[in-house]
Design goal:
79 residues; 2 helices; 47% helix; elongated
């Protein structure tokens, strides 16, 4: 089994909370065979990924970062 943990710091707890609430509704499709767990601690967001195949892990993490970028750009634009 392959795993990866990503920690993303935000400037404030408020921004971390907004990102967390935006990202937690994005569920990994059943066919992806990847488990993702999000946790929020203060101004930091942690994502843990586990997959049987490395390719599936790579795809899930890439998609996650695309959503993180979208969330942070939206927060920046609208506060």
């Amino acid at each position: 089994m392959y795993s990866m943990e990503v920690r993303i710091p935000f400037p404030s707890e408020r921004e971390a909370g907004i990102a967390f609430n935006s990202l937690r509704v994005e569920v990994e499709p059943g066919r992806s065979k990847v488990r993702r767990e999000l946790t929020l601690q203060g101004a930091g967001l942690t994502a843990q990924f586990k997959a049987e195949e490395l390719r599936n892990l790579r795809v899930a993490v890439t998609n996650f970062f695309e959503h993180v970028i979208l969330a942070t750009e939206t927060i920046r634009q609208f506060g």
